[in-house]
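User: Second chain of the day. Same drill as before.
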Amino acid sequence: MRIIRFKKKMAACATSFAAVAAVMATAGPANAAEYTVMDNCDVPWITCSYGDLRLFYNSKDIAIQNGYYKSAFTMYYSNVSDHWGTSQYQGSTLTTYRYVFGNGGNGNGQYMKNNAASVENCAPADNYRVYYNSGYGGTSQYFAKNGPYGDCNITNLISALKNNNASSHFA
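Assistant: Same format as last time:
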């Protein structure tokens, strides 16, 4: 009697396992798309005009030489809660944009989060802050708007933030 019950339980378990395996085998793959951008204004769901805050791969002495950009950089114009990137569902597809350094030079194509060494604020009216943590937390550094003659101020990140930048915010 016990052998028959055991065989029935085993048959039921095997049938359940087969049903689960069949469902999993026919399930479609998750749809995902990932892109890299060097300007957060290139992300379709972010509304902004142009990038005013530039984060450079190199320190200021290497980043700009004789008035020319020698280092790759990323541009932002808006609050960026995570320098790693941003994601959003577009229909059934999860679309992700990762921020990378661009425009050639040292660091071109590298991910931006925790890789910046200097900052240039070219905003005529906006001050910025760069933060150690995502979500605008931890140690931060303030960057004033550009000067009265339209000059962009480039500054090295403080040692606590150099290669430890995770978010930026209008200040």
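The longest strand covers residues 93-99.

User: Great, on to the next one.
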